[in-house]
Design goal:
The structure is a homodimer of 243-residue chains.
Chain A: H1 5-12, H2 15-18, H3 27-33, E1 41-45, H4 51-58, E2 63-68, H5 71-79, E3 86-90, E4 103-109, H6 118-128, E5 129-140, H7 142-145, E6 153-154, E7 160-164, E8 171-175, E9 182-186, H8 189-198, E10 201-209, H9 213-218, E11 231-238
Parallel strand pairs in A: 1-2, 1-4, 2-3, 4-5
Antiparallel strand pairs in A: 5-11, 6-7, 8-9, 10-11
Helix pairs in contact in A: 6-8
């Protein structure tokens, strides 16, 4: 759907698309979960315009493989770098095969909630990382993806509330984010954590992003993001012996 | 508040109070997280009427220490057993001091959301468990404890929705559950998981309870429990080297 011209035009104009990592309000939390990048072999799962891939190379990564299903986004990513350590490849994360032991760090920003089968990818990532390899990922928070009608409404006391329903009803959700008919897959928080543990990772951090006081002072329009978490951020380390 | 006569009378009449573990719909999930009990030294944090303490002894635990702040509940618990392996002690979990290395399993059912400082207790539990010791706990789910008005309302499309607000606003929540003015402490899912990791546990399971199809067939009135999770269930193992 990132190759749909209407959607692409809208997405390409978002601050995080134009200005990169620093325009993504959750980036400081995600960055704090990352190990030092120097010398690491990195795979960027759902690399989009390649902002993270270029940042990782600039931080001293030995190599970066950026994977994305969107041809349009990859074309932009390729145009933006001449760094020989960075490679981009078109790949559907629901079908991709990664070489065993090929990476030290797997990173994924806001891509996994588009997948039909996250458990399959997590198992593949575990095999692609050597023991001690690190996974850092963000997804839309399950509280955000659950509702039939994902928009704030006025609550019983007049305050805005986020109308949660269908939380335990996993599966397809069709929303009108940036374009009509965008398909995501809702899963519960225990699905993400359980998938990570089942794949053979040890959980090292779990964060639920909301704006800091400083961010809120600069962006008062983000107040709603404190009422319910927008992003779930996870990190894990590949256990010495795979599960 | 469990010693308030009105609250106590209401609580004592709940199915889980009268019929014990099998009347708690989340018990099968929690039970599956437990290690074999034979020979273990168990502490039951918030033991209430002692249903779990008696079950643990029946399963072969070497000793069981049941702690609760409610004198009324402990009186019932003491009356219900003559097993010399079970000891009950009145203790406020926000202040309790546990002996280092004194236990192999710490269990807590629906008590931690009453505590002002869960991190303090988790650190104490970690010290009270030897390396490899296990913690299994249930709490009211953060989605359940967050709202200003914790009751289903009719959503935009007419379906019942759970009105989430103040999710990232940790702290006191006053509800009218069984009696007016019951005080609980809301914390986020990342607070619980982060507290467990910071205390030196490795997370081994995270579940969000909702009724199974079988439970729903028997209790159609529980349908709402699928719209948002009621309980969060966690287990961890004390890391070999404390954090």
């Amino acid at each position: 759907m990132y190759d749909d011209p209407g959607f692409f035009a809208e997405y390409a104009n978002m601050p995080r698309s134009v200005q990169g990592l620093d325009a993504a309000p959750e980036w400081p939390v995600l960055r704090a979960m990352l190990p030092p990048l120097a010398g690491l072999r990195v795979v960027d799962l759902g690399c989009g315009f390649g902002w993270f891939s270029r940042w990782a190379a600039a931080e001293g990564a030995a190599s970066v493989l950026g994977l994305d299903v969107s041809q349009r986004m990859l074309e932009v990513a390729v145009r933006e770098t001449a760094d020989p350590r960075i490679t981009y490849r078109r790949a559907d994360l629901d079908a991709v095969e990664l070489d065993a032991g090929a990476f030290d760090l797997a990173y994924s920003s806001l891509a996994l909630h588009y997948l039909v089968d996250v458990d399959r990818l997590l198992a593949g990532v575990r095999t692609a990382l050597g023991p001690g390899g690190v996974l850092v990922a963000s997804v839309e928070h399950p509280i955000y993806t659950a509702p039939s009608d994902p928009a704030f409404v006025s609550g019983p006391s007049g305050r805005p509330v986020w109308p949660v329903d269908r939380y335990l009803d996993r599966g397809r959700r069709v929303t009108d984010w940036l374009a009509p008919g965008v398909v995501k897959y809702h899963r519960t928080l225990s699905d993400y954590v359980g998938g990570l543990l089942a794949a053979g990772f040890t959980l090292t951090a779990l964060e639920e992003w909301g704006p800091t006081d400083e961010q809120l002072a600069e962006h008062p329009e983000w107040a709603g993001e404190r009422e319910r978490p927008l992003f779930l951020l996870l990190s894990g380390v590949a256990a010495t012996v795979a599960a």
